[in-house]
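Appendix B, record 7
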Amino acid sequence: MKRFKDMFEDGAVGTGAVAQPDVKLFKRKGKSFDVDTEVFRRFNNGRNKFERWSKYLNLEDASHKAIYDYAIRNRDATIILRDNETGAMRAITPRGINL
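Structure tokens (predicted):
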């Protein structure tokens, strides 16, 4: 029986990338919003059910109010937040939905 080192040198064990099919990241309907870094950080662990939106958003700001209004009207939708500075994205899904 060959050792792993011998198999690796013979080329039997590859280090190439594995081909994966294109996967749709978010299966549910949703909308994306651009937010500042502070709001993006607040949603780090997500939002729990029955938690007040005012803990995460300033509802007097028009852009934050738009996120709140969309979330209330579309309870089963995915909300995608994008950080203005870094471009990082985060999805906020209703609890209990398996994506």
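Remarks on this record: The helical segments are 4-10, 37-42, 62-73. The first strand starts at residue 30 and ends at 35.
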